[in-house]
Fold each of these.
Amino acid sequence: MAFVELPEWAALAPVLILAGTALALFVFDSVNPHSTNRAVLAGTSAVGSLAALGVAVWFTAAGVGAPGMDGFGVIELFDGQIVVDQMALFFIIVVTVVTALVVVASYDYMEGHAYQAEYYSLVMLAATGMATMATANSLVTIFIALELASLPSYALVAILKDNRGSVEAGLKYFLLGALSSAIFVYGISLVYGATGFLQLDAIAAELEALAAGDGGDFGGLLGLGILMLIGGFAFKTASVPFHFWAPEAYEGAPAPISAFLSSASKAAGFVIAFRVFTTAFPVDVTGQLIGVDWTLAFVILAVVTMTVGNFAAATQENVKRMLAYSSIGHAGYVLIGLAGLGAGSELVMGAAMMHLLVYGFMNTGAFLFVGLAEHWGVGRTFEDYNGLSRQAPIACAALAVFMFSLAGVPPFGGFWSKYFLFTGALEAGLLVVAVALVVNSALSLYYYARLVKAVWIEDPIVERDGLTQPTGLYAAIVVAAVMTVVLLPGFGPIADAALEAAAVVIA
Amino acid sequence: MMIETLIAVALIGALVTFVAPNRIAGKLAFLISLVPAGLSLWMFATFDGRGNALLEGDLAFESRLEWIQLGAYDISWFVGLDGISMPLVVLTTILVTLAIVSSWTPIDDRESQFYGLVLFIEANLIGVFAALDFFVWFIFWEAVLIPMYLLIGIWGGPRRKYAAIKFFVYTNVASLVMFGAVIALVFGLGDAVTSFALPEITAAMLDGGPDGFFGVAGPTLASAVFVATFVGFAVKVPVVPFHTWLPDAHVEAPTPASVLLAGVLLKMGTYALLRFNFTMFPTEIVEPFVVPIAVVAVISVIYGAMLALAQTDLKRIVAYSSVSSMGYVILGLIAYTHFGVGGATFQMVSHGLISGLMFMAVGVIYNATHTRMVTDMSGMADRMPIAVGIFVAGSFGYMGLPLMSGFAAEYFIFFGSFGADFPYAPVFTALAMFGIVVVAGYLLYAMQRAIFGPYSLETDYEVSRAPLHDVAPMFVLLGLIIVLGVAPELIFEMIHDAVDPIVDGGEL
């Protein structure tokens, strides 16, 4: 195949395409400042992210990153600082899918806004950072990628400069983000101090050597470092105890950015957690060195996060806040993937990856519906949404799909990914976590159904004339809904890809 | 590919109808629904299945396709029909078509969404009866809930919100209990099963049962799962004391939704009981529960009928009488005899037709009078002779008048349960038979007050005859009821054939 003759860095093509798109937008902006040509800007971003998505899907289908395929295999670049394997490609797919949906929806949402080009290029830069997070294989590259994803995000949350909520949210997000970055870097330095390496495989090798030898005197140091790394991940994935920023930031940010952060950014946070805790800190060796099994921390975090998120979501009156807390709850479900690693099976982590992909569609769609409602100018509470289905039945049907899928009710994609998580938890022997998952899912149906009830069953509290049908927002919402449904019959390939990817990393 | 075609036509039809203009939605949905109705009748005519789908029978229209590999288990798209599911599929498609026609008058708001949801329900109902893989079955089973919730919630009566949420919560919690139980059972079976195909699970259950799961011993697990699934399905049936959602849902639901709810959705519960509890579980697991279930069944029959007697709302009367009729089905199932189980299955179809007819008739009367209160009207026969005549005929069907399907169904059930082996079977049967007297009582009493006697109804307009498209579906149903009453063997033969292996395999 001709592909084999390409240089190795061609494996990074999806990331490079995203970066190239961001730069192209910058060039466009400098040639043509203050452009309001939404079609070109949103179009370029959409083409860029779809191209990256296409390449990532093609790579996955062609077997790039799959060990044992002739000529391909797991591709390591820059002495193992960057790795392109199936898991990296899987998460690049998640990130690019969300990016594409978000930029298409932004076409309408950001209409009339002053900083069009900046907005799109920041989105693409953040997407580049998230895609790099998926491939980062050393604590340094992880940190750089993390910052590349975070800094544009802070600006994006605050991009509605005249809106107090947006600016306040941006500032909060930035301050907490800076704090968590500091904690994360401190954690990196402690791990470096204990092992002397930053590259993940090298850390693992050193840990094994230490465990085989006298164990060294750095067990406590290492444990503290790992705990701080967990804190950094918890921030990025909006998990307890670093979840406080999420409701504020998601509520204040423009809805497409809330969708972007709660879907793509969360997935990117999880991929570094998956990689660090499978590659760098093998469960048995690390446990022997620090005296505690670190999966225990994730068991607790998973249960607490899903419970806190769900109970808080159930009490919200504001739709966007409800979705923000539900996003915390879903972080708890995905944490099961880390909690179950002790059993050494790929099922539970693969299930977490599947959930993130399905979540990328259903949660993005839900936030984009909020964006549509903001575009229409209906209010923010459940009551304001009453009776929307009269004017916009298709968008509201899509909303019902997102809500029931988030709750894990058949016949939608969310049912499968939650069921896989459930089985994975049982297989890993985490009966408590499995029960918590089921109970929380059952409870979550209450507040998800409440939104469906508002738009479909309740009578409107205000008279409304016809509502517009903005093309971009509608297209993004309908595509997300169709994919959420299609993922039910089409779950087989997703499950296979996720399980294979997880198996490679865990082995 | 026949079953797939049925489901696909209904699903695509649902989408098309959903976006069609309101003006043509009703007619469009009717035309679309003729396709599955016609196809399923053709399937019925060419049906060549033998035996029971779960007990190594030969399936008709079988197709099986690998879907997802989950750990050690295969999940596959596995559908097929046997003598139990075939009549129920035909019942579904016919009732949906008739329900669509009967909605033309009462539904005058957001028509395209209404008919779209009805067709969506049809697709899922066909799926429930045809699916033979647990996951395929469960997905269809759950997918019925959402559209029915919306039908009641959007187009229902004054207390629609309460009724819709009650329906949803009751049945969804029940599904969750049942789902958890079946999953625990499959995991408990260990290496004996490699897929979620119902026939394979059944074979493993009858051949040793589960080893245990998370420290629970095998037989205990099996018994616990039996109870959990029974409760899960009993809510759907519904059996006393899980019946309270039903009258609320029925009274608030628009007529066509009531027709589908009573006609087909309740049968999902009894069908699942037959497939899971009374086919899958070996005799020694079921045996200790037979008498308690028989007690529950008889209580449902008598208590349901008594409640119906106490009502003055025509729709409530019919709704409670469904509770009573479903009690007969449970009694027939628990009898474990050819006629008992066969009669129960026959009753599912028969009751689907009769209750559908009754709800339509009540709906037609309501369209004209805008009241359903027996006390508000009198002598309706004077103004709406045809609609009321059909109501009377349907009532006699309910009472089990010979030559109507209700008679055949109840006769089979009583015949089967009287000769059953469980303790005090004749006593239970005799008590249940008393239910028929009560049924006759409340129906005749209601008819006497509302339909006969001098005409009186306080309206400021002239009550006139129902339009043809309101009456035509009822005539079709009445025709089917009489055909099945005169010649029950039309479907009883295939039912019998599918029921035999269950009874032979587990003689109590």
Amino acid sequence: MDTPAPLIEVAGLDAWYGRRQVLFGVDFTVRPGEIRVIMGGSGSGKSTLLRHLLGLQRPVAGSVRLFGVDLGRADERELLAVRKRIGVSFQGGALLTSLSVGDNVALPLREHTDLDEATIRIMSRIKLEVVNLGGFQDLMPSQLSGGMVKRAALARALVMDPRLLFFDEPSAGLDPVVSAELDELILRLRDALRMTIVVVTHELESAFKIADTITVLDQGRVLMTDTVAAVRGADNERIQDLLNRRPREVAIDAEAYLRRLTEERA
Amino acid sequence: MNALQRPLHEVGRTALGAIAGVGYAAIVLVESLYFLVAGRRVGQRVRLGAIAQQMREIGVDALPIVALLGFTVGLMLGIQFVASLAEFGAQSQVVVAVAKSVTREFGALITAILVAGRSGSALAARIGSMSVSQEVDALAVMGIEPVRYLVAPALVAMLVMLPTLTIFANAIAIFGAALYSAPALNVTPLAYLSQTLALLSPGDVWQGLSKSVVFAVLITLIGVSTGFSVTGGAEGVGRATTRAVVLSICWIIVVDMVFSYFINR
């Protein structure tokens, strides 16, 4: 069978915050057209993994490849070329507060293309229509509700017609109805624009609804990567804990505990 | 660690932090110069519109307050020199004393301190709150280099506007001094001003202007690098803003002294 080359390839990725290791040899592959959900509890390392996928952090060990380009070794020009082909919607939206919604959406076009102002305006309004924010282009980000901010951020992420879209915690801080609408929107985008989408979330319901495949991260390690059904049926204890919202049982290592209490630089 | 090591440890840590800060600021400076020169070639063009906007915020909007302080400082210097030189019967030297102290020192210093308070803090607050809300990350992943988009325009604007404001402050301060001193010296203000022009050498003005160029770089770099290093939410932004102003003013005064020493040797 002829499988297309993967869009994202992560191999043996380690990451550290100071003396604490947060990712342990993570391997991660996403193929074109997939909706991949990275799932895990707080502190599982999913945000750190995302920062590496976006090239915001250079890997200490291991490699991250997007479109076949090694982000850790790429020069400026290659990195820019990769970044023009991805779109990112951040958890808090990260719209520039000094610009109107319309200008925020138009920003990548203004910076990376030589299109005339009328074309840019039309293109950014089309993207606002796609996320159901038609007519809101003149408002400032501070005048939008939480769900609208996320949708505006999505419009900005889409404006360069990326092949690869990253979505950080789409449902965080939203009410169930709005977050369900956002999930629908993600599914529609994939079908209409044939994008590859990577979603980072800890919301089970939303993860199961939108995902083709799920990667479960726990304490910096990939527990499994498989289809929704397989993840649901997994007999791994930690995965079942996550699925059933069971508090994890923390085994106490007496020696390490005492060391943490007494050491100067724990 | 025993009681002796601890303070040493702290000194070492603070020194390392300070060196790292200077290094970071140097990198930011080199990067923004790089984007100004070669940005267009690597798809990171520094926009004229952004520079113009920064020039308005840093320069034009500061005109009233620079005028007010320049005038007040001129008046103050006039009062002091008339009073103190009268003790030696050297009142005729007031004109040259005011002219040289304003152009060499006070014009540049007052303007720089004011701009550090207005625009250095604004840069730190703006970039700090952008870092906290992931806006800086968002710029980076959109392929818009944060240094090119946020720092380079501010640096250019500061390099143009701070010397310009300094010239403006010089003129207003000498005018203020003239208003007080001319009657005290029994000359007309116009005669005072023309005497000032006759006594000033270009070197005096250049001394102030060259310092203001250095101050411009200092204010921008301290503002942006404290902004980029903000951690800890809104409180962190507040701390960074204060830190930017205090650090800038300290550096301005120290650099001013060092400069004066070397230029006047």
